[in-house]
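In practice, a research group might receive sequence data for several interacting partners and want a quick structural hypothesis before committing to experiments. The following worked case mirrors that situation: the sequences arrive first, and a predicted assembly follows.
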Amino acid sequence: MTTYAAPIRDMQFVLHDLLEISKQDLSGYNELEPEFTEAILDAAGKLASEVLAPLNRVGDHEGCTLENGVVRTPTGFRAAFDQMREGGWTALDCDPDYGGQGMPYVIGLAAGELFSASNMAFTMYQGLTHGAYSAIHAHGSDEQKATYLPKMVSCEWTGTMNLTEPHAGTDLGMLRTKAEPQDDGSYLISGQKIFISAGDHDMSENVIHLVLAKAPGGGESTKGISLFIVPKFLVNEDGSLGARNAVSVGNLEEKMGIHGNSTCVMNYDGAKGWLLGDLHKGMRAMFTMMNEARLGVGLQGYAVAEAAYQNAVTYARERLQGRAVTGDANPAGPADPLIVHPDIRRNLMDQKSFLEGARALAFWGAYLIDRARLAEDKTADDLISLLTPVIKGFLTDKGFDSAVQAQQVFGGHGYIEEQGMSQFVRDSRIAMIYEGANGVQALDLVGRKLAAEGGKPIMAFFEMIKAEIKAHEGDAALKADFLEPLKSASKDLQAAGMYFMQQGMKDPNAALSGSYDFMHLFGHVALGLMWTRMAAAAKKALAEGRGDRQFYETKLATGRYYMARQLPATAMHLARIQSGADPVMALDADRF
Amino acid sequence: MTTYAAPIRDMQFVLHDLLEISKQDLSGYNELEPEFTEAILDAAGKLASEVLAPLNRVGDHEGCTLENGVVRTPTGFRAAFDQMREGGWTALDCDPDYGGQGMPYVIGLAAGELFSASNMAFTMYQGLTHGAYSAIHAHGSDEQKATYLPKMVSCEWTGTMNLTEPHAGTDLGMLRTKAEPQDDGSYLISGQKIFISAGDHDMSENVIHLVLAKAPGGGESTKGISLFIVPKFLVNEDGSLGARNAVSVGNLEEKMGIHGNSTCVMNYDGAKGWLLGDLHKGMRAMFTMMNEARLGVGLQGYAVAEAAYQNAVTYARERLQGRAVTGDANPAGPADPLIVHPDIRRNLMDQKSFLEGARALAFWGAYLIDRARLAEDKTADDLISLLTPVIKGFLTDKGFDSAVQAQQVFGGHGYIEEQGMSQFVRDSRIAMIYEGANGVQALDLVGRKLAAEGGKPIMAFFEMIKAEIKAHEGDAALKADFLEPLKSASKDLQAAGMYFMQQGMKDPNAALSGSYDFMHLFGHVALGLMWTRMAAAAKKALAEGRGDRQFYETKLATGRYYMARQLPATAMHLARIQSGADPVMALDADRF
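A structural hypothesis for the assembly, expressed as tokens:
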């Protein structure tokens, strides 16, 4: 029932007006001219709209099924996955040495938005594979890379990440899965893993599991954990598939959403595995892909909300209900369209101004990852490390809220499954949880990232804001609508950071009690910065008489909405933070 | 998987410490001594915890089914409904002339919280019946009352409300269902109604539909609509059931939640109906029950969230994950319970401080309804009319958010349907939509209720706050923690009202663009007032050395949390309101 159109115009604006990617001095970036990226996004958008979006409801409705140990994906998923493979969409930003197209990550991310928005559950099969590819690419031996990467780049084989166990989620130090070294250098892996997305399915020949497990001598903490490659089918020397490994699907979880993705309980019963990276350094290997993986989840948060928003706009334009308070807008009809009503607009503008800001932040994040990798830019690396928990936590929380708002536009019809709006809400809910629940993101931000490198990255972020304000302070309209709200929001963020520094010394709970609010405060400031930059870029384009005037004026109006109506949240978060630990920690555990 | 315990201690606090009901000079109130209400709540709580709660997941999982035009409810619903009937729980606050127990509404509402919290979908069958009972009781002829009410009080017959049609939701003026007058004084009703909760099922002998329809001569607007009684089975003169009426179930909707309730498309094909109340005055008849119905939905919002909260607390106490930053709390175990972590407490305190404030507001609302009815108190009637959209809109929005937070405590486990946390989120979502979507509540508040009676009710509300502050200003601790935050929040609300008065004259969109924020701003101030009163009541009890000291101290600490951490939202809502209509209305409809 829902439809999806690729927001290519807006993506092009972010890539070229905001980030000016083809002008950046980064390997591969100079090829990214507007015509080139548009062609890519057009083709990806066509696949998303015409193939993946129509399967979204099918996937939700049918779900995956487990029969005799074999997982079947919903009708149409297999054929669509073939189309994705054949179109080369799985290989976009992969290493050409292993069959990839070698494009920058920012392009992979942009295409990923289109796929995730149109069908999140489906796109996860490829997304997980890309994560596993990255881990093997970064930490694998030459032999491992040669064995696994070409097939994973093409998604002939897909990948998974196996972290969680029934009793060990965030606290991986408690995991019990064991790895016993064998004489031939391999390990026998035994244990149970849960919540394994894309854990098994019928769309690829093989599934390459990356499994965290404890090998002897590593001790009890997370520091002693190692990472292993455990293929579903063992791979022969010649690359052909050999025996079935001792790994099986214990159960398929019945979930709130993303029904089209197979979330498995995986049982490892002495399965053959090979160490990936260094022994007892598995967590470090995991963390090197963390920024990318978490950015990818932040992207899911706003991507699904974008799809929900598009359908809400269509409904608000078409559904006739009530009359505009300022006079009939549709006098010939029985009523005016919903979109005439101020509160419907308030709802839609909340969504639109968030979504476009979120896209800018996610694409900027991808650019920073490219810069860190391609130019070995330490400043960019530090900055994206700081921003990662914000992107993951803030964009998924707000993305979910945004999808709920989109559903609300439909009134009672939004609650009926057939309409598809409920699915957006149910699907986007998981993004707040997996890849580190958002409370853990907040803890990472305040407990680790703020103080990292002696606080240099956060100082650099504040300097960036100052510079932005300074660069445009001669522009009176920009000053009133953008620079002053940004300055005020940024002051709130600084005050919060200061509070943590002063109070956190005395009582770590004082900082941690405010961590979640700090993540949201930071998110608003980051989006405020994005909107200020986008406003400046739009004004520049207007001044130069480039392109579609209406597009740039709409961009400015949307930005003004964000600054006027969303940014005031920073003061609230600051007030909550500054109330300290006492209200939060006051009760004994048995008084809740 | 989830459990539910009746929060009787807290209810008793609200009834007796806060509202002091047995001391109120209202008919029937002086019997409501603490021992008496406790006995009632204990018995209702037992039914809720032991019978209804275990059926909650069953109802969600099985849902209702439609076979050959007959709706079947989930396993166990019928027997539970019998228990509810036999226990007299459907008759609690009904008129003794028709078999009711004649208790005040506040007691009916308190019991209703227990039932809705434990099984919202199930309780709706009785709730809808109560609504239809109230309409017939208020507007029916003596003959109609004698025919229908005794059976509806006992829920041998259940009731429904038929408003919405496929093309007409909020805008009831567009409805097409026709009523043709017959010679015998009855009407033939023809048309289609959708989203009819409890529209048909197998738990009662008859279903009494109240149907809005257009009879000749009423014109096209909502003013010409009439309300009809349309029974599923016609009732013979002797009260026995006669022929099947021409009303049938067209479809059973597949919904996001409340699967245990049968949401029907109802087809009326010349069904026999009888006018209820005056011809062409159907909307007025509907509106007389509106305060009660909307208060009931506001109650659902926080009641389901209360159940979710209880399960989140249990999980947070039992789940071992990570270590407290201030030193191991459970050194003998492999990890500390989640509840040691500040961010988990922040999450739980957000829920707890909202829920207890919400309960106070809802119970106060029920008391005001009693006062309006039993003492014909116009001031109370005006005040509850003003508060009704706030109670409905704010408590359901925040109740949903609260359920989402409870789900978050479970991490990945919260996303698995078997755990039951997803159901709380999915069920509570509907409360934001039905009985007037929350945007419509905001419109009602700002567009109608604020200016009602020349603004007297809102002025009276502000006076109430002033008086509360004045009454306790000698108490330094109360002043700092409660009175000052309340004063500040109340100022924000006044400033918002002032803004609407000044700007709304020039541009109605300026007021309507801020209506939703005003509803939330008002909600926070109302809960701030409740918390201030509860804090004063708790201090009084402590000073008098009454009861459980720990309970009252916990109450004070929870109130301090609300004032410090939730009330700062008022400034954000004010800022959003004061940014006016421009950001909201800036875009042409085709630029979204």
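Before designing any experiment, note the following. The CA atoms of residues 407 and 421 of chain B lie 5 Å apart. Chain B has four domains: 8-139, 155-280, 289-436, 437-586.
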